[in-house]
Specification:
The protein is an all-alpha fold. The protein contains 3 helices and no strands.
Length: about 130
């Protein structure tokens, strides 16, 4: 029973991670292609919020459920495929972090442009 619950949670986390990543990228691209700066500003704010609520939660949940699944199944984290997946997950995370920074920066720049918030580079945090 525990295995099935962990497996379900791990699959759900993967779906959320990939789904929100794809959805967020799509909406940000569509906003930029619209060439409507006000729309880009609103979208960038929503994208940062969605990234923090959904993507970040899944990013944290995946290794936890993965570790628990490996432990429950009797796999060692040093096994080839598990080690490779951990390395690839780390590489993906290293690619994701600069994207989050760019999204926050775009949100702040667009909000500043429309007088919605602080000067560029001075923001109240990821959700601010």
């Amino acid at each position: 029973m525990t295995y099935l619950v962990l497996k379900y949670a791990h699959i759900l986390g993967a779906v959320v991670l990939l789904g929100t990543g794809t959805g967020i990228a799509f909406f940000m691209l569509m906003a930029h292609l619209s060439r409507d700066a006000a729309f880009v500003a609103r979208t960038a704010g929503t994208v940062v919020l969605a990234d923090m609520l959904f993507t970040a939660t899944a990013v944290v949940a995946q290794p936890i459920t993965g570790y628990l699944l490996a432990h429950e199944s009797g796999f060692a984290l040093t096994e080839g495929w598990l080690g490779a997946s951990l390395i690839l997950y780390g590489v993906a995370g290293l690619v994701w972090l600069p994207v989050v920074w760019m999204q926050v920066r775009m949100r702040d720049l667009e909000h500043f442009r429309f007088g919605l918030s602080r000067m560029p580079g001075v923001h109240a945090g990821l959700l601010g």
